[in-house]
Amino acid sequence: MTDAPADLTWIRAAPEGDPGPGPWIEIAFGTGDLVHLRETSDPENVVTTTRTKWEAFEKGVRAGEFDHFTTGAANHPTRTGSGEVRTEG
Fold it and tell me: Lowest-pLDDT range, 37-41, 52-56, 76-80?
């Protein structure tokens, strides 16, 4: 857990038009190279990283590097119990 500055402006990653209650991830860009993340259900628990690491994460998301974490999504490869890879959808 990190003590984040009190004056941060948090940006919520929520589905458009969804009023809540979440939980959702929020991000705030701090001073210098710092980027802060928290979950709306536990706002006191803040994780801090650098802008360079955040940008690398963003690129990975856009490139599909984390798609295998999405369950039930169409056209994403998944592993069966036997280890076989198949595509849903």
Answer: 76-80
